[in-house]
Hints:
Oligomer: heterodimer
Number of domains of chain B: 2
Shape of chain A: elongated
Distance between the termini of chain B: 49 Å
CATH class of the largest domain in chain B: Alpha Beta
Structural class of chain A: alpha/beta
Distance between the termini of chain A: 55 Å
Structural class of chain B: alpha/beta
Order of helices and strands of chain B: HEHEHEEHHEHEHEEH
Strand order of the largest sheet of chain B: 2-1-3-4-6-5-7-8
Mean pLDDT of chain A: 94
Amino acid sequence: MNLNFDFGSVKKSPALDENILYDVLIIGTGPAGLNAALYAKRKGLSVGMFTSKMGGQVVDTSIVENYLGIQQVTGEQLVEQFVAHVNALKIPILKDAEVLKIKKDEDGLFKIQASGFKIYRSKTVIMTTGSKPRKLGVKGEDTYLGRGVAYCAICDGPLFEDRNVIVAGGGNSAIEAAIDLSKVAKHVQVVHRSQLRADQIIVDKLKNIQNIDILLETKIVEVKGDQLVNGIIAEDKSGKTIEIPTDGVFVEIGYLPNNALAKGLVELNDHGEVKVNLRAETSLPGLFAAGDVTDVPYKQIVISAGDGAKAALSANDYINKMK
Amino acid sequence: MKLLNDDLRNQLKEVFQDMKDDVTIAVFTKSGTCNTCTETISFMEEIETLSDKIHLKKLDIENDAELAKAYDVQMVPSIVLLNKDEAYVGIKFNGIPAGHEINSFIPGILEVSGSGEQLPEGFLKQLETVKKPVNIKVFVTLSCPHCPGAVQKAHKLALENEFINAEMIEAQTFDEISNKFNVSSVPKIVINDQYEFVGNQPLEVFVEEIQKTQA
């Protein structure tokens, strides 16, 4: 039995104040948002943050081995260190906050509407709302959501003890999920429509595990079940249909940007990602973006953190020019 | 066996300094067949030492059947948080709140002590219409980082409205009830055993589902 106490989230932080005009309000507290907060605060700006989950998707990652300077750490511990660093600067954070709307008024100032009819004001906004798991988009997926179809291996893995599961996907998240699940499940079948694109070092790890099998160039076309999931139907390269019995389907096929706030406000690319330039500027002056929600390629913790810093410095320049 | 190390003890002491009123932790266990009861009691004993405002009551679901009934305790181990008047405020944890669930348990103590933040006014207005009993079950696993958020929201709603009670249920310990509600993703939220959704959804979704029970 262990304890995963998250001091940074539980400890009360200073309250976000509706009467203050902030220099920067940051939406999201993943690596991009937290690093933006750190850099903005160190520039002497007044900073506030909105969070629905401290650490963003990093907390769903069991092990992180590619953050420079830290050879191996759990996603959760890494977040803890990020949050402790930011908390030391006493930045007000509105927790469990749904931001409903961002608006730029004629006076050039931003108004952010949060749930419960609260309005916060700022000179600049940094949007770091991250991304959410992409769905397979096949028949049965929504029907069996929470009844065998799952998107968080570390959360739901324990419920599949000694059962058979399928992992859909071939990237790092999929292979890591398969490795995690192999510790509790009886058998893990990785099904991916093309070739594996996970890092070689992770694929090598997977190949040593007895109860994982890999099925490539196979496309899942349906999730089947009764009360709960009991199998999938897939199509191989030649178009032949196969049926694989399973108790669970873990979907790890990438991410979609959380762009609800950005729609109609700034330019998006074809994938729905917020377009940013070299300075993390969006198409709306004063609104910056960083991390997985943007069109910056390669969704990585270190890249998000770096872009968060960039956005903060860029916001600082913008504020200096306002004066 | 101690669950808390020195670092954690100090962090928790600091967090508990924000407590306003006293809180009683009522732990229900049963001798014999309960695997995690001993561990749960010893964990709660450790928590009790971290603040003068925290009091522990060890109860037996059979010997203290009347209290168990009053707090609607049906499984063990079960932890009920009581306010300064030792009154039930609709907040319960079924199963040991270890792993990630410590992040719903500790805030739960702070909330019951009266040091939590009030819900935004919009929600309070919506909750005023709730006049029939509402039970919120939040199924969790201890390795789920999103789950404490959902448990906290449910507990917060229970605190705000006397007709609402909310309980965390650790899905692996209580597999029978989890199977009954087909829990295969967590957090899974079941309201009045009838309306359900998956995930740490915004408060709006909780309130919307609760309102369905009031028709």
